[in-house]
Design a protein that fits this description.
Number of strands: 0
Oligomer: single chain
Order of helices and strands: HHHHHHHHHHH
Number of helices: 11
Strand content: under 5%
Distance between the termini: 26 Å
Helix content: over 70%
Radius of gyration: 20 Å
Structural class: mainly alpha
Largest sheet: none
Shape: globular
Number of domains: 1
C-alpha cells in the first residue's frame, strides 16, 4: 500500500516536471540569469572592489532572485491552472488522495528547481573561474543554502495557492520572501516595542515567520568569513522543517477545499 502511494506521488512529480520544463517562463528566467551573470563581468571591471568579490555577490544574489521568480510564476500558478483547466478532476477521481497530489506537485517543482540551479551554478562557477577565481567548498554550500531557501519559498507558494487565487498567492509569496529577509529587523523592532500595545503580535510574527536570512551567507563568502560546518547543517535542517510544515498545511487545506 505504501509502495502504491509513493508510486502515485512519483508519477505526479514526473508529470509536473515534464509540464514545468515546457513552460516558457522557465527559459525566460534562465536567459535572465545568464544575461545578468554576463553583465556582472562588466560590472566587476567597473567596481572599486575586487572583481571576484563582486562576481560572487552578484551571482549568488541573481540565483536567489531567479529562484523566487520560478517559485512565483510557476509554483503559484500550478494548482490554480489545474483547477481552472479541470485537469485536476481527472487525477483525483483515480485512487489518488489530494495530499498525494500536492506532494507530487511539490516534488516535481523541487526537482525542476534543482536542475535549474545546477545549470545556473555551472554557468556561475565557470564565469568565476574565467575571471581567475577559485571554487571553494563554502561557495558550493552557499548555492546549496539558496536551493534550500527556495524549497521553503515553493512550499509557502503552494500553501498560499490552496488558500486563495493565483494573483493573491503570487503577492503573498513575494511578501513572504521579503518579510522573511527582514525578520532580523523585526527582532530589533520587537526590542523597541517593549511596553507598547503590540509586542505580542510582533513576537508571534517573529517566531512563526521563517528567517530566510539564515540561508543568506553572501557576505561571509565575499569577505572570506569562514562558517562552521554545523551552521550549514542546521540551516538545511531549518529549511527542511519549514518546508515540511508548509507542505503539511497545504495538504490539510487542499483536502478540505471545496472543488
Amino acid at each position: 500500500m505504501k509502495g502504491l502511494r509513493m508510486r502515485a506521488i512519483f508519477q505526479i512529480a514526473v508529470n509536473t516536471f515534464k509540464e514545468t520544463i515546457r513552460n516558457n517562463v522557465l527559459y525566460i528566467v534562465l536567459f535572465f540569469v545568464v544575461a545578468l551573470i554576463v553583465l556582472s563581468v562588466f560590472v566587476a571591471d567597473w567596481s572599486v572592489f575586487a572583481r571576484i568579490q563582486v562576481m560572487q555577490d552578484f551571482g549568488l544574489a541573481t540565483m536567489s532572485l531567479a529562484g523566487l521568480l520560478l517559485a512565483v510564476f510557476i509554483g503559484v500558478g500550478m494548482l490554480g491552472r489545474e483547477v481552472s483547466q479541470k485537469t485536476l478532476y481527472q487525477v483525483i477521481t483515480k485512487p489518488i488522495s489530494r495530499a498525494q497530489f500536492v506532494c507530487g506537485k511539490y516534488a516535481g517543482l523541487l526537482t525542476t528547481l534543482l536542475l535549474t540551479y545546477a545549470a545556473m551554478s555551472t554557468m556561475f562557477l565557470c564565469t568565476l573561474v574565467y575571471l581567475g577565481g577559485t571554487i571553494k567548498l563554502s561557495l558550493l554550500c552557499a548555492v546549496l543554502l539558496i536551493w534550500a531557501e527556495m524549497s521553503v519559498v515553493i512550499s509557502a507558494s503552494i500553501f498560499f495557492s490552496t488558500l486563495t487565487s493565483p494573483m493573491l498567492a503570487s503577492f503573498f509569496s513575494l511578501a513572504f520572501y521579503v518579510a522573511g529577509h527582514l525578520n532580523d529587523l523585526l527582532s530589533i523592532k520587537l526590542v523597541a516595542a517593549r511596553g507598547s500595545l503590540y509586542p505580542r503580535l510582533l513576537t508571534a510574527i517573529y517566531y512563526v515567520l521563517p528567517n530566510l536570512e539564515h540561508f543568506n551567507v553572501r557576505d561571509n563568502i565575499v569577505y572570506g568569513i569562514v562558517l562552521p560546518p554545523a551552521y550549514y547543517v542546521l540551516a538545511l535542517v531549518y529549511g527542511i522543517l519549514y518546508s515540511a510544515l508548509f507542505l503539511a498545511l497545504s495538504c490539510v487545506l487542499f483536502d478540505a477545499k471545496d472543488l
